[in-house]
Amino acid sequence: MKTAKLLAATALVAAGGFTASNAQAADLTLCWAAWDPANALVELSKEFESQSGHTMNFEFVPWPNFADRMLNELNSGGKLCDLLIGDSQWIGGGAESGHYVKLNTFFDSEGISMDDFAPATVYAYSTWPKGTPNYYALPAMGDANGWYYRKDWFADPELQAEFKAKHGRDLGVPNTQKELLETAQFFQGREVDGQTRYGATIHTERGSEGITMGVTSALYPWGFKYENTPGKYDMEGAVNSADAVDALEFYKEFYKTATPPGYSDGYMVAGLDAIKSGQVAMGMNWFAFFPGLAADPDVGDKLGFFANPPQKVEGSTLGGQGISVVAYSENQDAALEYVKWFAQPDVQAKWWELGGYSAHNSVLNDPGFPESAPFAGEFLKAMAAVQDFWQEPAYAELLLAMQKRMHDYVVADQGTAQEALDKLIEDWTETFEDEGKI
Amino acid sequence: MSDTPIDRVAKATPPSVASKIRGLSDRTIAWLFVAPSIFLLLAVNIFPLIWTINLSFTNYKANRPNREVDFIGLRNYERILTDSDIWLTMQATAHFLFWTIFLQVLIGFALAWLINRKFKGNDLWTTLIVLPMMLSPAVVGNFWTFLYQPQIGLFNYAVSFLTGIDPSSFEMIGDVALAPWAIVIVDTWMWTPFVMLICLAGLRSIPDYIYEAAEIDRASKWRQFWTITVPMVLPFLMLAVLFRGIENFKMFDLVVQLTGGGPGSITELTSINLKREAFEKWRTGYASAYAIILFVTVFGLASIYVKALNKVKER
């Protein structure tokens, strides 16, 4: 028996050695943001290492510096990253500046079909120009801005009775944005379990993308559009429509009346800290964090999750990323090998199991998917109505203009919502004029 | 008799090199020694400056190397000088500069004057006072965000203790009216010791016999202060103002960590704004014009100030 085992082991080692020597083993570096899903990807990639013989290295950068760090790397033609899981908004710049390898030929030769992935993710994470069959990334991580809430507080009979008396409906998951605000206001400054609690955390961060991601989570449910006619850059009347003004005023009211004191520059981590410490009843954050929260030993079993509620229409802010092969990489073959491996349905299933949000239809359309995690059903709901920010090559300029205008109005009380949106159109018009698009 | 250093160098020079140098004039040899420094100066300072001036007349974007670059004349300069948002950042910078320098000079001089008295524990107090300036500005910015936290921040509780105001009723960082003062307070806390040390050097450079002569002439302490102490410390004070002025004009790390330029753009100083334009929006041509405008401003102001400083020294 021992001899048989030894022979089998020898055969396995020999086979492994053969696989690795088929193609030269490479040292691959995958770059991404430093967050929970990145740890899941490290775990997942061990399988690729053992199968391919390549070594995987990882460069994870904290979110506030991620865009700066990675865009500098790409712009300087750096060879640090062979694979990059870059934000969806980078796809235009990545494609037009030649940072990303175009994947069409590779997909065709390897039989990878974009029809196997959720259409919204293919559109947002992979294509440039938008919606055309020109692929620069494989959808890697679906994501949207959603909400978590304290189930235990919502189930408290006293609070339920008080809420019903005040608002004439049950204290539960809000069905509209306005109900969301009412619920947050209900908890604002309230004593629960002997401590003062607050309504909710929303994104207010100024430096990178925070407040834009937060404000758009209010704008989209009010039916916000960036252009009257897609591709025409005709923003007047769309960006500053009456509904957009209402939505922006709503967001400001939310900030002023339902968030913890001093929450003027909060984003992902601050939001997570607030819910974990019991400071707030609800919080806006990316679905990507929900697996980690649900598994949290202190608050995991007390939390519920829901998609961004509609107002006039369904709408959620898109997060998530595609995985691209960097054009300056000296290990492009090995990097493409990784993409091929990652696109396999069984790898995608394992990706979801480990805490990554697969965008593969075989995972998402599985009948058991909605029940596979407490947030899975809500994730599907959110992804059905996602909308993304501009994905233009000049996206950073467009984003920073919006960061400024929104923070000026919402947090710093400068001017009116109408003025903020009008100024935003001026900024964006200037950018598009510089780009030669209008 | 021992050799001079020059003799020793001459002896150590290999004959092959010495024969080549022998025919050169003193002026040429001097140029040979100075050339590396001049080359470095040209490469690291002058060339980038000329290149920046060149870029400032274009629409170049460093993140889009394949994009066509157009010469657009003075358009970048015109845009900057007519942009009301840029003027707001200038105002924010002026507010920060004026109040930090004013408070640091006032408190720094007062502390130096007190420390200059001879009392028990003098050295210990000096060490304690200079501690803040030994910290990293990024660290200082970061921990003051906690001190300013409305719910748990010690600063808010200290104000509450002194005034009776509810600590969570005001937000030093999130409030438009308070945020500009929040950054002034932190910079003053951190850099007053620096001004104090310079003033202390000035105070200790005043010979005792001048005060003794004044005592003999029955000059009051007040008179001694205004006619001896202040004039003799003034050049030191002006030097401190120059250092702090230049440092705070380019203030970046501390304020970014503390407020990120917010709320809105209330504490967005010119250096933060310039960094956003250059390395976040990647409007390289525009940012170059912006940098040139700031350079000319600082250079002009500093030149005027240095002339004034020299006049004071000559007195």
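Chain A has two domains: 2-143+319-387, 145-317+394-434.
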